Amino acid sequence: MAHPGVTDAFGNKLANEPIEAALVVPAGHRGPAFLAYKNFNVIMGWNRSEFYAIAVGHLADRIAGAGKLQNPPPEDMPALSRNNILTLQKALNEQGFDTGKPDGILGPNTRSAIRGYQSENGLVADGYPGDTVLNALGVDLTSETSGSDT
Predict the structure, then answer these.
(1) pLDDT of 118-140, one tens digit each?
(2) pTM for the model
(3) Which one, of 74, 56, 76, 73, lies nearest residue 64 by Cα?
(4) Domain extents for the chain?
(5) Which residue from 1, 58, 92, 118 has the least number of CB within 10 angstroms?
(6) What single-letter DSSP state applies at residue 12?
(7) How many other CB atoms are there within 10 angstroms of residue 58's CB atom?
(8) How far apart are CA 20 and CA 7, in angstroms?
């Protein structure tokens, strides 16, 4: 199975191997992109955070000799508290985009609901709650402090 148009961080074509993978963009289309293989789902079974699963996978790659990440997350990426994500989940659910039971975790169900919202509203459907999505759904980041989600 070829990966047409997909390259590594250095622009090199990927090997033409028959391996199933999913493209994961945890910080949206402006941030780093990762090809996730079946072990990614195993890690996600322990902790539903994509950032956690990527960190574990990247640590394994580094131990095996790989270098640092080539494309870090955008510097203007909002810091979302658990309360921000709860507000986002409730707003998405109210508009018919099912996140499941609001839990304050930016997991696969919430990202899927965000993609649905983005797609329906003509936005890049990357599953990332950027400023446009947050503002439209009434998530106020200024009312939160870094320690308010405990």
Answers:
(1) 999 999 999 999 889 999 998 88
(2) 0.74
(3) 56
(4) 1-75, 82-143
(5) 1
(6) P
(7) 15
(8) 15
